[in-house]
Amino acid sequence: MKDKQIEQLIKAEKIRQTDGLELIPSENYVSSDVLKALGSVFTNKYSEGYPGRRYYGGQENTDQIEQIAIDRAKQLFGADHANVQPHSGAQANEAVYYAWCEPGDTILAMDLAHGGHLTHGASVTRSAREYNFIRYGIKDVETGEIDYEEIRQLALKHKPKIILAGFSAYPRELDYEKFAEIGNEIGAMLMADMSHIAGLIVGGVAKNPFDYGFHVITTTTHKTLRGPRGGLILSRGVVGNPLKKPEKTLENLPTLIDRAVFPGTQGGPHMHTIAAKAVAFGEALQPEFKDYAEQIVKNAKKLAEELQKRDFKLVTGGTNNHLILADVYNSFGIDGKEAEIAMDKIGLTLNANATPNDSLTRFRPSGIRLGTPAVTTRGAKEADMEKIAEWMKQAINHRDSEERLVKLRQEVKHFCQTLSAI
Ligand code: DSN
User: Fold this and answer.
1) Contact at 8 Å (CB) between 317 and 356?
2) Which of 6, 37, 134, 234 is buried deepest, with most CB atoms within 10 A?
3) Rounded CA gap, 95 and 189, in Å?
4) Residue spans of the chain under pLDDT 70
5) Pocket test for ligand 1, best of 22, 24, 26, 167 (most atoms within 8 A of CB)
6) Residues 156-191 pLDDT 10s
7) Does 183 sit in the ligand 1 pocket, CB within 6 Å?
8) Do 121 and 132 touch, CB atoms closer than 8 A?
9) For ligand 1, is residue 168 a contact (CB within 6 Å)?
10) What is the maximum alpha-carbon separation in the chain?
11) Would residue 152 show up in a list of annotated catalytic residues for this protein?
């Protein structure tokens, strides 16, 4: 590169990602083919519209790329329709709200403090100003149990237009059947934000909300799905012409969603990212992806077990998916930020996270959140989880000893050299 300053930082980041263990549950390592597609000449192209219906010329290749991405996404999730244009998960959620709701309409979603996502109506977001969000949470922090009767009562009282199931920090599986029963009882649209577990769904180790009557799934493409940073909306219904405004019916959701993405909430799609999504979806369709998804969950369960042996108190007492939420404040008397910093020093990257009903602040919460998608991509297996749990405990025990932390950093680095390259 001519720009040496940026080139040097790209190299430094590659070294950081190679020599450390990536435990943030929403991150992953893409394949070299995904990176190639991302860095391709499609970044030069404007393609407002959809395949076969664009507002600019020169679309003979973009149309094919987008159609391939759409077809693969539909196949992966068993959907009638896929919109591959959302720039990320936030835009995907925003577009679905815009497609189905009028300003002031009610949406029932999981509380951010209990594992929901910012875009599920946190008060600081734009959508919270536009729509009326009602929140449900975890009933029992020990088990992670959700009170579906409470959700039903909230739904009966507030008559939401959308019932949203999904999370960014919940280590258990949701009961989609119960959500569907409630949604059908009050006539709400059923939306699932599967950003964290999309790869587990397509890998067959997590349930697919479409199998329980959900109408829409949104997801990011860069977490367990292991694609480029981006968003995706899948729906059930009949695909129509987005140039014609349809009635707001469940059957018309695909067309309503296409119109809500473009021109409703976005301009030109990022065709280089769509090319990379197509590559990642192709990879996720391969039989090996199932093995990968299974190993993510095996690793997470083992890591949870090993952490518990070392006195980490886990929210919900374990995990059924790829992520673990540990309450370090109630385990060791330190806040999540202090734990995150200690881990960073030895090359373990994870994030401080609020626990349900957290008594500490959002920036210095009680918990840490970690997961196994990225280390599993590098080939880590159950036996390696014991080592990771031990390093985590050591980092906490010796957080005030720079000398000990430097030694631990060396051990982690040597271990990383035994894993596959990124
Ligand atoms: N930032 C993502 C996560 O870490 O879960 C969600 O947007």
Assistant:
1) no
2) 234
3) 14
4) none
5) 26
6) 999 999 999 998 899 999 999 999 999 999 999 999
7) no
8) no
9) yes
10) 67
11) no
| 54 membership: H or E segment, kind and range | strand 53-54
Contact by Cβ (8 Å): 48, 267: yes
Ligand 1 centroid vs 103 CA: distance in angstroms?
26
Supply the residue whose CA is at minimum distance from atom 3 of ligand 1.
26
Q: What pLDDT is recorded for position 241?
A: 87
Nearest CA owner, ligand 1 atom 2: 26
Strand partners, 348: 21
DSSP letters for 164-207: EEE-SS--S---HHHHHHHHHHHTPEEEEE-TTTHHHHHTTSS-
Quote the CA–CA distance of 6 and 60 in Å, as a whole number. Answer: 33
Structure tokens at 363: 């920036």
Q: What is the DSSP secondary structure assignment for residue 319, as one 8-state letter?
A: -
CA-based nearest residue to 203, from 265, 283, 303: 283
State the pLDDT at residue 357.
Answer: 87
E strands, 189-318, where? 189-193, 216-220, 231-235, 313-314
Name the percent of the chain lying above pLDDT 70.
Answer: 100
Percent of the chain with pLDDT over 90: 93
Nearest to 273 by CA among 226, 230, 331, 319: 230
Sheet with 367-371, edge to edge strand ranges: 313-314, 323-327, 367-371, 351-353
Which two structure tokens, joined as six digits, stand for 187? 């006539």
pLDDT of residue 242: 85
Domains of the chain in start order, with CATH, are 32-284 (3.40.640.10), 289-416 (3.90.1150.10)
Residue found by looking up tokens 């300003």 in the block? 103
